[in-house]
């Protein structure tokens, strides 16, 4: 059976919008910090850093007092950003893509949640560290419980959730 994504628009509460803004910012910060670290290691020491070393460095980052706010959001989107970065590097080294670019605050922002970071029950979707369900405009019912969701915000400030079923 193949997986299919269903995209819906949703309207977050003020609390959810704040949590999502923090999550988007933390995902971007982690991605850019680790990209800088990996780039320096490659140019200075000719060393390729894998996913496990990057994940260990993320743990070090989260323990630093000036980056303690990384613990306020779910750890799953942060780990997913490392997986996306690892895929970007793999594609670069195989000649299929350009060197990974730094993420920008403008335009499109997104965070990916795996099944351990959200809860889907009775047609309601709850994100990790959020007490209320997302106010989603369901245009059709999902055929099954989603395995992964991606929450995104476009340049116009609209929020969308893409459910991979």
Mind explaining what this structure looks like?
The chain is an alpha+beta fold. The protein has one domain. It is 39% helix and 19% strand. The chain has three helices and six strands. A hairpin with a 5-residue loop joins β5 and β6. α1 runs parallel beside α3 and α2 (51-63) packs antiparallel against α3 (75-93). The model has no long low-confidence stretch (mean pLDDT 93).
Q: Mean pLDDT, rounded to whole units?
A: 93
How many E-type strands?
Answer: 6
Shape: globular
Total domains = 1
Radius of gyration: 17 Å
Name the poorly predicted regions.
none
Helix content: 25-40%
End-to-end Cα distance, whole Å, is 10 Å
Structural class of the helix and strand makeup?
A: alpha+beta
Order of helices and strands: EHHHEEEEE
Helix count equals 3
Largest sheet at a glance? 4 strands, antiparallel
Q: In what order do the strands lie side by side in the largest sheet?
A: 1-6-5-2
Strand-residue proportion = 15-25%
Quick structural summary:
The protein is α+β, with helices and mostly antiparallel strands and 165 residues long.
Write the layout of secondary structure elements.
Blueprint: E1 5-10, H1 14-45, H2 51-63, H3 75-93, E2 109-114, E3 118-121, E4 124-127, E5 148-153, E6 159-164
Antiparallel strand pairs: 1-6, 2-5, 3-4, 5-6
Helix pairs in contact: 1-3, 2-3
Q: Features of this protein?
A:
165 residues, 4-stranded antiparallel sheet, two-stranded antiparallel ribbon
């Amino acid at each position: 059976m193949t997986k299919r994504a269903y995209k819906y628009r949703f309207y977050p509460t003020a609390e959810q919008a704040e949590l999502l803004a923090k999550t988007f910012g933390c995902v971007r910060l982690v991605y850019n910090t680790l990209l800088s670290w990996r780039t320096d290691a490659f140019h200075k020491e000719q060393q390729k850093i894998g996913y496990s070393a990057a994940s260990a460095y993320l743990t070090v980052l989260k323990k630093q007092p000036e980056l303690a706010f990384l613990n306020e959001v779910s750890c799953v989107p942060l780990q997913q950003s490392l997986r996306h970065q690892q895929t970007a590097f793999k594609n670069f080294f195989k000649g299929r893509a350009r060197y990974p670019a730094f993420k920008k605050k403008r335009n499109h922002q997104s965070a990916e949640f795996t099944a351990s970071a959200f809860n889907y029950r009775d047609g309601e979707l709850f994100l990790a560290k959020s007490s209320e369900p997302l106010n989603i405009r369901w245009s059709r019912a999902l055929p099954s419980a989603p395995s992964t969701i991606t929450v995104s915000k476009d340049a116009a400030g609209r929020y969308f959730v893409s459910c991979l079923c």
